[in-house]
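Figure-free illustration: sequence to structure, shown twice.
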Amino acid sequence: MQGFSEFIDGLTIGFTPVIGGDYRQKDYAYIDLSANNPDLLKLEVASSEAFSIFIDEYLRNRKAKAAYGGYNELRTLYNRSELFNNVAANRNIHIGLDVWVPAFSDIISPLDGEIHSFKDNDNFGDYGPTIILQHSSNGRKFYTLYGHLSRKSLETLRIGDKVRAGEKIAELGDFDENGDYAPHLHFQIMEEMHDYTGDYPGVVKKEDLDLFLKNCPDPNLLLKI
């Protein structure tokens, strides 16, 4: 059987939007938020407001409208949250793709699918409101996750509702409802859900990384930003 990463790569031919509105491929700039980025040392990462300013300045300097990145990225910014930084496990490797755009931006489905589950993961530093879609192509099921949404986005959802590629499914939340982050979308692809509903780990510890990378390939294989 074709590997899952190759399968995902083959689903789209070119740039495939997940953010609605007038965003073209050339409007995106890659951003490094890893522990290797010296600019982050100057930043108070515990402050969502300070991080928003950092993102805005980054985009202005590059004449871009959106920033993206973060797959398989070791980050220190999760140290502020006990959800990730605790005695049991130090989870600090990000396995989704972040897209940094303004709060309340439209989120669209890149593929046909249906609502698998949704939940307000309201812990500090968590996803906040989250939607998971189920997709099927050539008889093969898989899932996409959309985190850091607005609470309004969950109000009228029903499990099993159909969505079409390019259809608005949600909007981004602001820091007061998205887990206390600068506004951004966490987008992730999963081959298996492992009994999760409305949630799936997007930050993992080093010891579990190989398992999660196998189940969660680089989302840019699909989006092709």
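We now fold a second protein in the same way, so the two outputs can be compared directly.
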Amino acid sequence: MIKKALLAAASFAAIVAAQPAAAEDLKDFRIGILGGENEADRLRNFQCMTEQLPEALGVEKVSLFPAADYDGVIQGLLGGTLDYAELGASGYAKIYLDNPEAVEPILTTIQTDGSTGYHSVMVARKDSGIASLADMKGKKLGFADPDSTSGYLVPSVTLPKDIGMPVGEFFSETGFGGGHEQLVLEVLKGTFDAGTTWASGVGDFNDGYTSGNLRKMVDKGLVKMDDLVELWKSPLIPNGPIVVRSSMDADMKTKFKAFMMALPEKDPACFSAIQGGDYKGYTEVNPEFYEAIIAARKAKIGS
């Protein structure tokens, strides 16, 4: 089954360039998967969707399209060649600022403590001698991806308040790690002195929290939390949205939303796999839920 998904992934570039099918003729439901994690793992996590959605939606098949980075999925959604994706708030803001009618945010996750937000966290190697944010002055900081909310937008906006000066003046250098998973690996390798990634902020840091990139890396055996130290945590960030193509048939949207709402109880393993950790379930959202992030992105980056 993974091989079939890999074959679908190989045609990502082609589908981004293709014209979207008319909604009433939709036979292949196309899922965009953000970059930042090993491709085989992303395909494996979403495999359950390819098995269950055809019957639920009445389509012939479901195809997975894992992009190399965040922008690959964003462009697919803007072009109408993807039907559903799970985005960070900043990625959604980028789409909204380009074309507010391209996608509809319909759901977001609920953390185990009932909140609908998460955090950006800055981590460093425990044996680096860096134990606090102040220790990072004059050091090299890594961000995850230019379109990541927690990996770039939020830290770039909120860190100056905590360090008392612009990011470019406090750190000797900044750069991008090529996604959340790769960023943490680069921190462990010493490419960056510290890096920003995402975590629920719920539970114990020593476990990688209840969900987020650190937790996924712990579960996959890629990192031991004993090797890391947390230097900084952002204010709460709105959980990213599940979005669907706005031009999709209304009945298809209703069926898809119902499937997703039922998923946490119907198939907890699938729900946990696609979300990357422990969550309570989903709740409805609309564009207004992301107004602050849209404004922050517009002010900091533009579209």
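Summary for the second example: The chain has two domains: 28-112+240-302, 117-237.
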